[in-house]
Every structure is written in structure tokens, then in C-alpha cells.
Amino acid sequence: MSLWATKPLSRIMAESEGGEHTLKRTLGAMSLVALGIGAIIGAGLFSLTGIAAAENAGPAIALSFIVAAIGCAFAGLCYSEFSTMIPIAGSAYTYAYATMGEFLAWIIGWDLVLEYAVGAATVSISWSAYIVSLLHDIGINLPPYLVASPWQPVQLPSGELVHGLINLPAVFIIALVSTLLVVGIKESANVNAVMVMIKVAVVIIFIGVGIWFIKGSNYVPFIPENTGTFGEYGWSGILRAAGVIFFAYIGFDAVSTAAQEAKNPQKDMPIGIIGSLLICTVLYVAFAFVMTGLAHYTEFKGAAAPVAVAIAKTPYMWLGSLVKFAIIAGLTSVILVMLLGQSRVFFSMSRDGLLPGVFSEIHPKFRTPWKSNLLLMIFVSLFSAFAPISAVGHMTSIGTLFAFIIVCVGIMIMRKTQPGLPRPFRTPWVPVVPVLGILVNAMMMYGLGWENWMRLFVWLAIGLTIYFLYGRAHSHLARK
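Below the sequence we write its predicted C-alpha cells.
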């Protein structure tokens, strides 16, 4: 079989309707928007904003958020067309299979592990650190050897840097969220909605309170002069910062992995994808503008908690505890949507024979891929408990940007090869929008530096080894 053999759209749709691989359709438009916001707003907003402002863009970090949002918007429009044409679990993997063939589909499916599974592990470690800090605030101190991995040192609230035995809180949240996902998509969506309301409310409170204490002098110069090094201020700094804070946008594409569980995907998927992206962009730009107005961007350099630096410029120190609570709620919903997305990608890859059948087994009562959720719980928990993954944030960003580029290319291919297919939502101005999506996302990938490119190539090499040793031989498309 050719590596570039595509899976017919009619077959993709037929396999999703009825039978043992049917997921339960319970999600409406607002649930999908909440899933998108749940995945997008996490610790990245509260930590990366200050870091990128201090090291790359200065007050122009607000422009970096707009650049990153533009790249996401181009990709989001392409995702919206695909998700209404192919309302199937699997997201970019399924779209690539229908347009560019099995080989690229495998690459993108494996690439999405970086965004979802490894991303969830990274976020769980942050969740653990904030829980330890919050418990310390109320007088509860967990044993140091139970809150850090042997290779990933953690700074305790006392300032002590410890190397532990296992990061138990990180394992706990992965297990809790995985169990919730097994019980049902509706129950998971309801919990996510509560988390989303909490963190959005806190972001709005920070903006509403902080705006009254802004100092205009902190915006001068708005775009600091470049130091002579690419990425250190100036317009190149805005671009580099866009690649860094792009991590704060990761997740809106996870909405498309739930297409097979949406009540009316043709109508609701574009609302979920574009709506969540639009809401978060407005909140992000306003948050960045207020934050750099409260404190000069140089004050964020080396700060372990950049938001705390900004809050210290107001008389309302209780905002610090509120932000900490919002971060914990935010991280919980991010982990939930990431694990949801990963299990649905593996569900689709398994249904196609590229992964073992256990990943596509559906629970007879809950109608969820429960074995996939449990296996991912074990895999991700091992990363959370023991792995040194300090550099995975950038790896996750470059993996996601690569997925966005593939989706943009896929739209142009599908318009040429199958122009007559029904498209409930059409990406406007094709090929302009997809081409711009490719260019903007490629620029952000370039801005992340060669080290992250090397990590991406190594990761893809591991994936290709698995494909040629297992996936290609077991592919249902090849056998037919």
C-alpha cells in the first residue's frame, strides 16, 4: 500500500455511525465553547505573560498575544471547515488521513501526543506546585519527598529547593480527571464548565481592579529597542514572545476532538472553536495590557510569580490568593480537555488499526473509550510523577504549530480534490487564509529556536519507528 493512500470520506463517516465504536452525542454549542476556554486559559497566562514581557517584548507583549491569536484564527477557520465536513473524533489526525494519506496522518497523530498527553503531564506538575502552595497558606505542609520527582526539583513555599521521590499530587489529579472522563463526557463537560466560570471571573476581576492603578510611564517605550540579538525586544522580540506565549493558546483545537460527541457538529463546532478563541484573545490582550501597566516590564525578569509583582502595585493583596485559586481551577480544566483530546485521537488511530484495538474499546454503559483513558492515566502519571520535563512547554508549542500547518495544507488539498463535498462551514478566502495560517504558524515555529526543532525531530523519529514496526502492518486501510 502507498504511504500516501487516503481514507475515503464516505468510509470515515460510515465507520462512525452505529456499531461498537459509537460515542455518545451530548455536547451543545456552549459546552463546546466552555471546552475550548477550559483548554486555553491555564497557568500559561499567569506565568508566561510576565516572562515573555521581561525577556522578549516588553509592554508590546499585548501585540504578541494578537500575533499568536491571528495564527490561531487562520488555523481555527480551517479546523472549523474540517470539523463540519468530518465530524469525527481524531481532529487533525482524521483530517490528514482524508486528505494527505496514512503516513502524514500517523505523523500528525503522533505529534498530537506532544500537545495532549505530554502537555497534560506538564500541566499536572504545575497543578501540584500550586496545590502545595495553597495548602501551605492554610497551614498544611505535605512531605517534600512526596511533592517532587527525583529529577525535577520543586521550590517549596518556604523557598527550599527539593528533589523528592514522587510527585504524588500530580499523579492524583491525573487519576481523578481520568476517572471523570471514564464516567462520561456530559459529566466531564459539567465539571469543566464550573472550572471555566471560576477562572474567567478571576481574570475579569484582575483586569477590572488593576486598570485603576496603571502607570502610563510603564508603557514607555512600548516596543523596547532590540539589543542586537534576535528575539530580545524590537519586532523580533514580539515574534519570539508570540511563539513563547502561544503555549497559552494551546487547546482550542481540542474542541475538534469532541466532534463525534457534539449534538449538532455542523452548526456547533465552528461556534465552539472560533467562539472560545475570540473570548480568550480579548481576555489575554486586556490581561497583558493591565499587567505591564501595573509594573514596568523589567520588574518581571526572574520573578517566580510575575502576577504577584503586578498585584503588589495595588492595595488589594487578596487578589494573590484569588489568582492562585483561579490557576488551580484553570489547570484542572486544561488537564481534563487535554486528556479528553488525547483519548479521542488514540480512539481514532486504534479504530484504523494503527494502534492496538484496546484504545477504541467503548464502555457498554458510559459510551466512553474507557480503556484508552485508563492506559493514558498510567502513561501520563508516570511522566507526572518522575519525568524531568522542564523543556516540554516549548516542545508542546512546536508540536501544536506543526499540527496547525498540516490542517491549513489539508484545506487547500480538499478544495482541489473534492470540491463538491458538502461544507456546512466554509473557510473564507481560500487559499489566502490557509496560506497565511501556514506562514504565521511557521514563523512562530522558527522563533522557538533550533533546540526545539531537534526535540521535535527526535520525537517524530520515535513515532515513525512505531509506525513501521506496528501501524503499517496492522492498518485496516492496507488490509482492505
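The chain has a mean pLDDT of 86.
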